[in-house]
Amino acid sequence: DGGITQSPKYLFRKEGQNVTLSCEQNLNHDAMYWYRQDPGQGLRLIYYSQIVNDFQKGDIAEGYSVSREKKESFPLTVTSAQKNPTAFYLCASSMVRGNTGLKAFFGQGTRLTVV
Amino acid sequence: EDKVVQSPLSLVVHEGDTVTLNCSYEVTNFRSLLWYKQEKKAPTFLFMLTSSGIEKKSGRLSSILDKKELFSILNITATQTGDSAIYLCAAFSSGTYKYIFGTGTRLKVLA
Fold first, then answer.
1. d(Cα B22, Cα B9) in Å, to the nearest integer?
2. A31, A44, A106 member nearest B43 (Cβ)
3. Partners of A39 in the beta sheet?
4. Could you tell me which chain B residue has the CA closest to the CA of A104?
């Protein structure tokens, strides 16, 4: 089955720890995105990547880092600099060009909790 | 700054009612407007609109885009409890290749 897989589904982080959220897609999509969702806040863009080895900051990039070494993979690291990381994290992918390809597909999300 | 605004933020209706969800946008290099339904985790795609005045329909759901007035509406007729969800609107910019999401409308349908 084609799709986007995020892991883990639930993640607990201690204060001062870095944690990495995984996102893998087999849809052959060029673009990948990371969003954060807090209650009542919709989806806020953290980082996005249109092509391998290139990525751009979104609206709330501080305290996060990403890499895009492979087309299929776009892991997100939540660093200790992120002061309020408890949230629901969604990864998405889409084609870069073409009207019919411009809908984003989402993974099932990772719920991160600081303990 | 690009922005998408949805209204109302939340809505409670009874089964059989018709609802209209609103989405306005101010996005440079606007390319398309997308609607998603989010029940528990992953948002699922409903519609993508690129041209003004052309209604997209899927069962009891329909949506239309007005590129002159910069808004879209999502209509749900004869609502059912299974329609209870958060409905997200997003605008895609072909300048930055970003999807800008609104805060969502939380719909609750009572039996």
1. 10
2. A106
3. none
4. B45
